[in-house]
Amino acid sequence: MMRKVLFAATLGFVLVFFIVPLTVLVISSFHTGKGFGLSNYVEFFRDGVSRKAFFRSLYMGGTVMLTALLISYPSAMAINSIRKPGVKSFVMALAVLPLMTNPVARTFSWLAVIGREGLINNVLAWMGFGRIKILYTETAVFLGLLQLFTPLMLLSLVSAFENLDEEIVLAAQSLGAGKIATFFKVQLPLTRDGAVMGSLLVFAGATSAYVTPAILGGSRVLMLSTLLYQKAMVVLDWNMAITIAVVMITLTMLVNVLVRISLGRVGT
Amino acid sequence: MRRVLTALVLGVAAFALAASNVVIVSTWGFNLDLLNKNISDPFFKEYGIRIVRELGNNSDRLTKLIMRKDKPYVDVVHFADYYAALAKEKGLLQPIDVKKLKNYDQLYDFAKDPIGDHYGIAYAVFNYAIVYRTDKVKEPIKSWKDLWREDLKGKIALPDITITQGPAFMMLTNKIWGGKEYDPELKIAFEKIAQIKDDVVTFYRRSSELINLFKMGEVWAAPVARFAWGRLLATGLPLKWVEPEEGSLGFLSVVSIVKGAKHLENAYKYIDFLLSKEVQYREAMDLVDSPVNKLVKVPDEVAQKLTYGEDTIKKLIFYDVNFIVKHRDEWIAKWNEIMGR
Predict the structure, then answer these.
(1) Which of A15, A19, A236, B152 is deepest in the core (most CB within 10 A)?
(2) How many interface pairs between A and B have CB atoms less than 8 angstroms apart?
(3) Nearest C-alpha of chain B: how many angstroms from A163?
(4) To which H or E segment does residue A202 belong?
């Protein structure tokens, strides 16, 4: 009885907060001026600007996701090897700090680092190199998104490593596997779910973030999220805004499948 | 029991009475404490009408008006001039009978009918001119054209076309470089922007963004809205405010009555109150808004942070927002295309 009630509650929650709004969204994306059809999507992919935003978001989300994955694996292993619980939670708190700061303040502080008069350029100039333009380029957006979303990957991986029984690692090593072989044959496959979850969160986050690309990229680096904002809030073209939203959701789901398949092969 | 019931009935009656004596105003969520002090409290004292505010930015509130078009909840709406014109075009407003407003004749002419057919009245103005660093920029800036100067390359910021000041800035650009301001294609302006886009630090979307760029030394000169001037001065940088020889751009905050407003009489009282020299003076002294009532006199130190004074007012340039409403979406599309190149 209890189980049925809980199940119904869960189902109701998912229905009300997820399935119904999503269905409405998807249906409205086919809603055109004169009825139903694919014309919103045709218009979206025919327009050079939105096509460019689409590929830029895909590329940006993908590179941020992969870089976060590469950075986070060694970090998660290192954090997991900390024995003192106090120290461990302190390091974790430091790692998730960017998620807890105000997005606008956090993004503005990047100006002090990558601006023409910022830290990096001042160091370069001091060493006798010329100044380089980072702010308001794709690189700036990449850095901002990487800083913002790497903690999500790290959290997923740390919990994956926590669930990994250390005796399995010891067993692998006692059977003659070196550190590298142990990592690729044992640890990586067993933390795969964490990696998939982390990748998904990072990709979804990086493609849908608004403040970071808006402030660090400016008008010249339009992404799907900033284009959506423009359509919904500035031009008030809601049909196109909804279409972009559906494109973004579809993109994330496709990447999810792709990540599952490719990571699924690892170590087998 | 009976006593409880009586109290209940009385309570409901009082509530109904209070509810009928309100005016529902859709406006921005800034300076609410000052708005209560300068407008709501004295308005209630004078007329016994409560002001109920619904808050949000321009586009959120416009969206709400559109959604509730058939069953309007809001009586009076405050918008930036562009959004007021958009609301007019979407049939959300009703014309104002200016004969019912005793303070109307005290307004500057530009405030009297900014979006046409008396669908709105301006109650505040701000101008848009150039600010620059006097320690970095050797030759003083005098004209809008100076933003294209060689020595300012890589040191200026300009407005993004999607912000309020963007389209008017483009119309002005079209004009100063030899075209007409009312060119639906803004051909010259887009050429001039394409020409310097890589030398522009950024096309800003928020004044806070611009202030930060000034503070960090990234930007030495930029067109700035008057309401951001006080915050820029607070950075302590050696900055100068210049109203270029061609004049500065003027922007208005507009108040309108929603079509089908339930508290029409109260709405008129509210608007008249808003335009009165007492309210305009109080709002100016607290630096909330610059006055459009000609009778308002403020001391110099306050005037310096407002859009105020005969010289400034005389040289304000206003463009027809209905023209902008008609063409802005095409301009934004063209802008996106040029910026992405």
Answers:
(1) B152
(2) 65
(3) 44
(4) helix A192-208
Contact B332 A235 (CB under 8 A): yes
Residue of A nearest to B215 (CA): A112
List all residues of chain A from 120 to 149 with a beta carbon under 8 Å from chain B: 135-136
Beta strands in chain B (DSSP E): 22-27, 50-55, 76-80, 93-94, 121-133, 156-159, 200-204, 221-225, 239-242, 248-258, 316-317
Tell me if chain B has a CB within 8 Å of the CB of A235: yes
The predicted model scores a pTM of 0.88
CA distance A50 to chain B (A): 9
- The DSSP bridge partners found for residue B52 are B24
| Helical segments of B21-150, H only | 32-35, 41-47, 58-67, 81-89, 109-112
pLDDT tens, B265-305? 999 999 999 999 999 999 999 999 999 999 999 999 999 88
pLDDT tens sequence across B94-104: 999 999 999 99
The 10s digit of each residue's pLDDT in B44-98 is 999 999 999 999 999 999 999 999 999 999 999 999 999 999 999 999 999 999 9
Tell me whether residues A236 and B335 touch, CB distance under 8 A: no
Residue B257 · residue B64 · CB < 8 Å: no
Residues 6+ apart with CB under 8 A from A220: A136, A137, B197, B203, B339, B340
Looking at residue A108, its pLDDT comes to 85
User: Confidence class of residue B135 from pLDDT cuts 50, 70 and 90?
Assistant: very high
Interface of A with B in 200-229 (CB under 8 A): 214-215, 218-220, 222, 227
- Helices (H) then strands (E): counts for chain A: 15, 2
| Cα end-to-end distance, chain A, whole Å | 42
CA nearest neighbour of B334 among B186, B205, B197: B186
Rounded to whole angstroms, how far apart are CA atoms A116 and A118? 5
A54-87 b/e with 16+ CB inside 10 Å = b?
Answer: bebbbebbbebbebbbeebbebbbebbeeeeeee
CB contact under 8 A, B339 and A136: no
pLDDT for A95 equals 86
Residue B77, classed as helix, strand or coil, is: strand
Residue A115 has its nearest CB partner, among B62, B205, B218, at B218
